[in-house]
């Protein structure tokens, strides 16, 4: 069953026809596949004469679901909000929870300091490693061109859902798989509804990562939800501009998008 919701002003961004598909014309440009999803952490790095940290989501996403870092390790979904410090990392917080020399390389290892492995300063890094990794996974046309949902469901990747799975409250077998699909109506007749599958999101995320800060949990109470707001990094745009598949992959959300013949 579908739950219908209205998407206010869904076409205020304007439309054009391209490649025989109806598309929104002011989609922000996306980075090349090896760089898409790389996040630059520079809250205090350059202030302390260090290069910014480049965090490649792709290499971590293959091993852990989003909830591990953004819930258990307390990384904010918003850039610049998490007060990561070297002291905190060395004490086992944030990156240091895994980068301890056991699970992953530590700031200092047997061969010396590993600072430059993270403090790279530019988004473009690890290109060849990414290409070798992506070659083995299901392909899609946009973003980093990896179909992560398909990779998970076919067992090509097996990311952990928790770092403390012995806790029965968050044991992997008990993680909620909410299989409820929402149909989000666009106001303009030429645009087909967006289909939101909860299951594809709860396989990676916790409910609290979207509700209530990004979307109100009560039906039809999320205000000013529009394509313009998405493209401004709000609502769906929190993830679907820089990490999850980008919004120029129109038919992933609007599967009945009209074709122009």
Give a written overview of the molecule:
The protein is α+β, with helices and mostly antiparallel strands and 261 residues long. The chain has 2 domains: 2-32 and 133-253, no CATH class; 38-64 and 79-126, Alpha-Beta Complex (Cytochrome C3), CATH 3.90.10.10. Helix content is 17%, strand content 14%. It has helices at 57-61, 66-72, 86-90, 127-134, 148-153, 198-202, 227-231, 250-253; strands at 2-7, 15-18, 21-24, 38-41, 53-56, 108-109, 112-113, 181-186, 194-197. The longest helix is centred in the middle third of the chain and has 8 residues, at 127-134. The model is unreliable at 1-22 (pLDDT under 50).
Short description:
With 261 residues, the protein is of the alpha+beta class. The protein contains 8 helices and 9 strands.
The total tally of domains equals 2
Determine the fraction of residues in helical runs and give it as a percent range: 10-25%
| Intertermini distance | 31 Å
Give the rounded overall mean pLDDT: 85
In percent, how much strand structure appears in the residues?
5-15%
Strand order of the largest sheet: 1-8-9
CA radius of gyration: 20 Å
Number of helices: 8
Order of helices and strands: EEEEEHHHEEHHEEHHH
General form: globular
Give a short account of the largest sheet: 3 strands, mixed
**Uncertain residue ranges:** 1-22
Give the number of DSSP strands: 9
Q: In terms of structural class, how would the helical and strand content be classed?
A: alpha+beta
């Amino acid at each position: 069953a579908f739950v219908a919701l209205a998407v206010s002003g869904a076409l205020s961004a304007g439309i054009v026809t391209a490649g025989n598909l109806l598309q929104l014309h002011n989609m922000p440009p996306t980075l090349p596949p090896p760089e898409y999803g790389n996040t630059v952490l520079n809250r205090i790095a350059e202030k302390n004469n260090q290069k910014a940290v480049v965090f490649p989501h792709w290499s971590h996403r293959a091993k852990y679901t989003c909830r591990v870092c953004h819930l258990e390790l307390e990384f904010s979904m918003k850039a610049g909000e998490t007060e990561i410090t070297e002291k905190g990392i060395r004490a086992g917080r944030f990156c240091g929870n895994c980068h301890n020399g056991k699970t992953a390389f530590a700031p200092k290892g047997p061969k010396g300091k590993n600072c430059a492995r993270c403090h790279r300063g530019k988004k473009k890094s690890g290109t060849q490693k990414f290409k070798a990794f992506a070659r083995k996974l299901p392909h899609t046309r946009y973003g980093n061109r990896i179909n992560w949902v398909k990779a998970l469901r076919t067992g090509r990747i097996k990311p952990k859902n928790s770092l403390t799975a012995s806790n029965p409250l968050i044991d992997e077998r008990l993680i909620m798989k909410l299989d409820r699909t929402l149909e989000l109506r666009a106001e303009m007749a030429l645009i087909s509804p967006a289909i939101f599958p909860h299951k594809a999101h709860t396989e990676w995320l916790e409910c609290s990562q979207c509700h209530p800060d990004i979307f109100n949990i009560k039906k039809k109470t999320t205000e000013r939800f529009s394509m313009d707001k998405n493209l401004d990094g709000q609502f769906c745009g929190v993830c679907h501009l820089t990490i999850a598949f980008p919004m120029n992959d129109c038919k992933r959300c609007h599967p009945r998008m009209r074709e122009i013949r």
